[in-house]
Write a structure and sequence with these properties.
about 0% strand; 2 strands
Length: about 375
Amino acid sequence: MNVDIDSTRAYRPLWLSLRVLAPTFLGSSSHLVLACTLLLHLLVTLMFPLHLLLGLLLQATPAEMFKNLTMSLTCAACSLKHIMHLWHLPHMLEISTLLQQLDDCILSDEELDYYQHTLQWQVNRITRCIYISFAIVYIFFVPIAISVLLSEKHELLYLAWFPFDWHNNDFKYALAIGYQFFSILTEGLQGLINDIYTPLTLCYVSGHLHMFGIRMARLGFHRLPGVGIQQQLLACIQDFKLLMRLHELTRVIISYVQLTQLLFCGTNLCIIVIYALFYTEDIATVAYNIVYFMVVCIQLFPSCYFASVLAEEAQRLPNAIFSGNWYEQSAEYRRNVLIFTQMTLRLMKRPMMAGGLIELNLNAFFVTVKMAYSLFAVVVQSK
């Protein structure tokens, strides 16, 4: 096959980002790199959300509280998801290896056509949508940051707690504002990894499951020279083992990441709407919060959508096996196909779950939006 097939190509920007944020987790053994990595995660991953949350205790008005709470919860969720991804980094590396092995299993023109024109189109749509949404957020963030820097008195991007007085000292103020700038940029890089990895992996798992279904539906109709039908079936069973391992690793990695995503996205949607409706006064801030609302939805929707697609592909797999030419084969072959079909039913019983509590699908997305609306209604009624 002359066509270049590489399902890991879309992950390369993520691995590059991880090499910047956590080089020691990817094999770097330098003591200096280790010290810098620990310092980065101490100051940004752990301390930045904490110093924003502590700043909530210092807020004087509800408007400042809601403004700070949005960023505080976003950064806290981002740090939690980043730590979870670092914990499961060996599994993520194994997934890359499995995807490369499954790429080598693509044999027919029909599978190749699906890979090139459907799967890759979905992957490109995911990555472009999330990259563009993050770029738009930072574009809207720039004028707000400039207005803070050009203000006559010392102001922070987000009010927070510092262990020193930055109000009356230019150097300490520059240190505080520089720390927030650097932390927001770093958290944005972490958020990009968090938001792309899950939908991208679910897309590839569902795509390879679909191509495996194509392969099984052709089994028995197209004979390969020098390869018996039993050998073809055994090869398909080996491919299915790779898919099962890929499916299980994906479930483990995204479980608590998506639970955190669901909880924090629902809460953030409510807070963003409250702040935009009741406490914003200038058009730039309103526009920023509208874009921010859309980005939060984009964070959640692709994962829920492709989890639903994956569940549908798992349900179609037994029918794809039944579509093969098993009825003209030997009794032993038919018995093996029956056992194999029963094995594939395990995928239907193990859907993608968020924390083992919530099934990840489109219903989870709409439930999260409804939860945000319910919180909003409670706050409005109490107000």
